Amino acid sequence: MKLNVYLSGEIHSDWRDEVIAAAKGLDITFSAPVTDHAASDDCGVAILGQEDDKFWHDHKGAKINAIRTRKAISDADVVVVRFGDKYKQWNAAFDAGYASALGKSLIILQPEEHDHALKEVDAAALAVARTPAEVAAILRYVLDGSLPG
Prior knowledge:
The chain is of the alpha/beta class. It has six helices and five strands; from the N terminus they run E-H-E-H-H-E-H-E-H-E-H.
């Protein structure tokens, strides 16, 4: 078996690298959003022209980023959505909902302090993990049936 896994959500830490490293040797193709925050924010105006109003600046960027996100989620077998400690990741919640609506297998990666705020998102997930290592262990079990340790 082979998996396509989309790593969505928080872009301010190296959690994606941790999942990929822990899943080494598994037949997984990983994809992700653009994680260069400035590029992600400014892609719309860089490509389609400047905007005086910040709303339209953000709107252009969000739509261009959505092309990549929709394609990657659509192609994914599993979608992992990370909610980080510091920022409210509304886009991550949207990605989780979109993946759920498409019937994708959804793994949520979040700290315990977000449990209450994310209870509806977590209810749609097939697993809620606390660490990137737990995400990789889930993927390893799905692919080859092996347990940690």
